[in-house]
Amino acid sequence: MSLNVIDLIKGQLGPALVSQAAAQFGESESGISKAIGGLLPAVVGGLANNSDNPSVLNAITNASSSGILGNLLGGSSDNSIISNLLSSIFGDKLSGLVNSIATFAGISSNSSSSLLNLVTGATVGTIGKYAADNNLGQSGISSLLNDQKGIVSSLLPAGLSLASLNIGDWAKGYKFDNDNDAIKTPVAEEPKIDVTRSATPTETYSQNNNESGGSIWKWLLPLLLIIAAGYFIWKQCEKNKTTTTLSTTDSTTVTTDSMATVTPSDTTVKTTVTKVDENIDLNGTALKGYKGGMEDQMITFLKSDGYKNAANDDALKDKWYDFDHVNFKIGSADQLEAGSEGQLQNLVAILKAFPEAKIKIGGYTDKTGDEAKNLKLSADRASFIKSWLGKQGVGAQVIAADGYGSKFATVDASASNEARAVDRKMAVRFAK
Length: 432
What we know:
The protein is of the alpha+beta class. The chain contains 14 helices and ten strands. It has helices at about 5-10, 15-25, 30-50, 55-65, 70-75, 80-90, 95-105, 110-135, 140-145, 205-240, 295-305, 340-355, 370-395, 415-420, and strands at about 175, 185, 255, 260, 280, 285-290, 320, 360-365, 400-405, 425-430.
């Protein structure tokens, strides 16, 4: 599966930026968030439809060094590179896109236009940075963009389609016609029901013919309706039929400082199960976390005197606890994504409740990119968390922070971005 670049870009358009944009543009946060949700796939789709356009590739290549990612709200609205890029990929469809998003999100056209510039800046900046980090030339960028054509339309929020935005829908066969303002749309043929009729035309009917024909249709028409209704119900049942197989193992990743082993799942078919925060008891204090998650496992281990009875560090180094919520922004080692500090605060509470416990922080990456950079990034992230915990008053209990890069990664570099996410993590273990 190809990389979904939208997943990379979302890190730049988190809740903090939504709040700032809402305040700056005088719009509601929900309206800003809704508009971004529609603009992001549209912009990626527009770039994908121009994956062989030299001006588009040059803009992306130069974006990584422009500093635009560090000043999206201030550096996008009047950026001539972005303005020229939008004109290049959308042409005279640009105003229609702005107005469609404004109507969809319930914001002004001016706000929609400013957000389009912002989202475009975040998009070319992120793709440019990814290309630079992974040594992609313009041909590689072109291939990456071209891969997005099959997925962008499915990522638009309900109520929008690339066709409704008048910019094409590649996933369903729409094709932008540069020689015509229209969108060429293949018309799906509806199933036809052939009804055999008499080949002999009859202009007049006798009373007997009317009675005979009527008697036939009295039973034939209801029968056809019953058959049609039965067919419809059967198709709906087929459409809604799903088979769900849940893995019965916890698939906890276990690593050591020198090697890594992964507990295999008993089944190969898994579904994504939505985890729900519950109250995890910490000596009478309720922490929000997953049942069976990091906090729950650590507290259970400490209460069992497993740490107290461990003879030395060797007895502890094989058990790591993966953070469920702690994530860094793409390419960053010092900027946490929104919602990450909550679980770090839980870890602080655990350490304060068990002051004799010592821990070690580990950082990991997937198998893509340069390994030297992966090692540095993972080590810097681990050090950042160690420093953050130190500022919360538990620094003496964090005795080490190491980065392992892709050393213990288990998913092939050619796998999808979603599949490789399991290897991009932060973890903690007890130490002595």
